[in-house]
Amino acid sequence: PSEQHHFDVQGYHVIVRDDRLAEALSSLPDEKRDIVLLSYFLDMSDREIGEKLNMVRYTVQRRRTSSIAEIRKRMEVNNDGEQSD
User: pTM above 0.70?
Assistant: First the structure.
């Protein structure tokens, strides 16, 4: 079993149990990581996140989408079992 990884975001405490996901999240800039955690782990809408982070909904959506693409790329595994760069 993997360790638990703890993230604090906007007064909330989020636990991530997947090592690779936690590593990918940790590689993101704080603001992008906060958006992903608030959206996918705390089930907040882009509007709610925008209110918390003082940004417009469209900016939240754009950053969330690009962050998920970055996370996917970091977590991809090549056919030979090696993690891609």
Answer: yes
